[in-house]
Amino acid sequence: MIILGLNGSPHRQGNTAALLKVALEAAGELGVQTEEVFVQEIMEKLDRPYCTACSSPCTGKCYRGTELEQVFKRLGEADGVLMASPVYFGTASAQLKSFWDKTRRLRGEKRLLNVVGGAISSGGSRFGGQETTLRALHSMMLIQGMLIAGDCYDEKAPGHHGVCSQQPTEDDSYALKRAAVLGKRVAQVSLATGSLRQNRPLGRPPKG
Questions:
Q1: Among 56, 105, 122, 201, who pairs with 15 as Cys (CB 3.0-4.6 Å)?
Q2: What is the spatial distance between Cα 174 and Cα 172, in angstroms, rounded to a whole number?
Q3: In a domain, 129, yes or no
Q4: Residue 118 near residue 83, CB atoms below 8 Å
C-alpha cells in the first residue's frame, strides 16, 4: 500500500507542508508506505509547465523523459493520495493546479480509478477560503474517479470536507490533530478498498 502526499505549496517547509507531514506520519502508523512530492520543484523543471491540451487523447509528450513522468508513474501506482494546498484567491495553488492539469493521460488510462483521496488546506485567516480550496481539490480527484475520504461520526473526525488550518499551522493544534485523523482515515479506506485497485484498468497508452 502506498499513500502519496502532494505538497502544492511554493514552500517546501511551510504551513501546508507541516500539515501534510503529520497526515503522512499518521498514515504510516497503519503500516502503509508513504511518500511526499514537492510539486513546485517538479513543475519548475519543465519547459512547458502548463497544459495546453496539445493532443487528445493526451500522449504525455510535453513531459516525456522528465521527472514529472516518473512522478506520474508513481502516482498511478498509489492506493491513496493526500492533496495539500495553501489558499490562493479561494482555491488551490497554481503549482498544484498545473500539476493536476497534466494528469490527463492518467485519466485516459484510468490509473487513478478507485484511488482514495483526502484534502488539506491552509489559509491566512480562520475563514480564508480553506473549504472552497478543499472543494476544488475534491473536484480534481472526482474527475479522476477517485474515492474521497469524508467525515466520521465521532470526535475524531477529520472535518466535514478535510483539514482546514489557520496560519501559522504550528499554533493550530486543532488542525494538526485533524490532519493526523485524515491521514489515518485515508490509509484505513485504502486498506479496505484494495481489491478495487488490484485489477485497475490501465487502458491502452495513447500513441505518439
A1: 122
A2: 5
A3: yes
A4: yes
69's CB contacts (< 8 A; 6+ apart) are 60, 63
In a domain, residue 207? The reply is no
CATH code for the domain of 67:
3.40.50.360
Instruction: List Cα–Cα distances, 53 to 25, 40, 50, in angstroms.
Output: 36, 21, 9
Domains in the chain: how many in total?
1
Q: What is the DSSP string of 145-181?
A: TPEEP---SSTT---SSSEEEESSGGG-HHHHHHHHH
Grid cell, residue 95, equals 503549482
Cα 22 from Cα 106, distance rounded (Å): 28
Question: What cell numbers appear for 120 in the block?
Answer: 488539506
Structural domain of 138: 2-193
pLDDT value at position 203? 46
Confidence category of residue 182, pLDDT binned at 50, 70, 90: very high
Asked if residue 120 belongs to a domain, the reply is yes
Q: What does pTM read for this prediction?
A: 0.90
Tell me the average pLDDT across 34-51: 94
Strand residue runs (E) in 13-138: 33-38, 80-86, 116-123
